[in-house]
Amino acid sequence: MRGSPLLRAFIAFCLIALLGWPLWHLTRATQAVAEVTAPPQTEIKDIDLQLDFTAVPKSFAVRYLEKDLWTEPAPKSSMEHKLSLAFPDKGVDLVFHIEWPEDSPLCAVRARLTDPAGDTHEKTVWGQGTVDEVLTFP
Amino acid sequence: MPIKALLFFAMLAVARPGIAAEKIRVSSFSTVLTEIAEQVGGDRVQVTGHVKPGVDPHEFEPKPADLKTVSEAQLILVSAKHLESYVGKLKEATGTSASFVQVGDRFTSLKMKAEDGKQAGSVVEDPHWWHSIANMEKAVKIVRDELTKISPADEKTFAGNASAYLGKLDALQKWVKLEVAKLPRDQRKLVTSHDAFQYFAKENGFTIYAIEGISSEDQPSSKKVADIISVIKTQGVKAIFPESIENPKVLTEITRETGAKVGGELYADGLGEGPAGTYEGMYKSNVSTIVNALK
């Protein structure tokens, strides 16, 4: 092959660049970050919760995932409420925040939850004064 | 009178070193058991923690100075469940006749796949029992009873100290339940590179997916990486918790392909340093890291 060595080098560089660009394009690491696949959502349903207190508290709240589902500023000794929440097979952790009078003896509340399948689960919270307790259903 | 008083104080001054020397000498090979012995024994014990916070107990080997301390100890505490492979040699080398308590062997084991050593790949007892607060409570009672056997006169002191420490553990358990309740039960998926959190998972409703290989210096096979990516994607896991990041390329590939983030540092093998230097601090740090990453 004749011609200027500089010209030959330039042609060779151009050929490599032309071949290299699609190769780099095909093999480069993609910069797009995948989104986390959301886990399958459980349908929100009405769930019946019944509470029976041994002593009427000053106030109480039932929370789920840091949100109040049921609050009662003037509670009675026995109450019932329908909660709207997704109830996955693995169950739910409900947080009970109860404020009994400071001078009251050891108190308790019986929580009776009826899940979407119609099964009833019962749990008890014991305490004095202000209590924050997690009950897992089922 | 002043002479009598001087004599009394002089006798007291002579007696003090004697009282200090009577402290029960405890050797502990677990950072967690060191804390329990100190809390339960109070000023009646002199505890030597051979494994320091932040030291990997899987890698620890006793040195000659450790053997000397052990040979003089009245109570020796080991984590057990095969965590300390040197126990037999330790007994033989020191010739100790002290009470040698393998605490972890006194409660039920979960099983795990051995990651390295002669037993690699086989199913063995999971030694990380302290990630269960219920197990910690049992360990406190074991240490209390062992100290009482050595010094029955201090029974009330040990019982009172143990009761106070158990109260702290009870408060910690309540705090953990409230924190973990911030996560839906069907999203409690813990992807870790070191299979050390089974006891924690069982107690708090988590499912563990161990991703062995990404923290090792060896390049895991592309199939293994693909499997890990598949698990994270199908389970909708938001964060992964590699114990150490020695293989950043693989970790980057996993996080890029799945969108999962790196969740932060977990204390798997005992107490850490700084705020994680106590059991309560270590546990709270782990729970906060997990909950914040998976929320």
Question: What does this protein structure show overall?
Answer:
Chain A is α+β, with helices and mostly antiparallel strands and 138 residues long. Chain A has a domain at 44-137: Sandwich (Lipoxygenase-1). Helices cover 17% and strands 46% of the residues of chain A. Chain A is built from 1 helix and 8 strands. Chain A has one helix at residues 5-27, and strands at residues 44-53, 59-64, 67-72, 78-86, 92-99, 107-114, 120-127, 130-137. In chain A, the strands form 2 sheets. A 4-stranded antiparallel beta sheet of chain A has the order 4-1-6-7, with no helix packed on it. Chain A has a 4-stranded antiparallel beta sheet with strand order 3-2-5-8, with no helix packed on it. Chain B has 2 domains: 2-176, Rossmann fold (3-Layer(aba) Sandwich), CATH 3.40.50; 182-294, Rossmann fold (3-Layer(aba) Sandwich). The model of chain B is unreliable at 10-20 (pLDDT under 50). With 295 residues, chain B is an alpha/beta fold. The longest helix of chain B has 26 residues, at 155-180. Chain B has helices at residues 2-21, 31-41, 64-72, 87-94, 133-150, 155-180, 198-204, 222-235, 248-258, 279-294, and strands spanning 24-28, 45-49, 75-78, 99-102, 111-113, 123-125, 189-192, 207-210, 239-241, 261-262. Chain B is 47% helix and 13% strand. In chain B, the strands form 3 sheets. Chain B has a 4-stranded parallel beta sheet, with helices on both faces. Chain B is globular. Chain A binds chain B through residues 29-30, 33-39, 42, 65-66, 86, 88-95, 132-134, 136, and chain B through 174, 177-178, 180-188, 205, 233-238, 255-260.
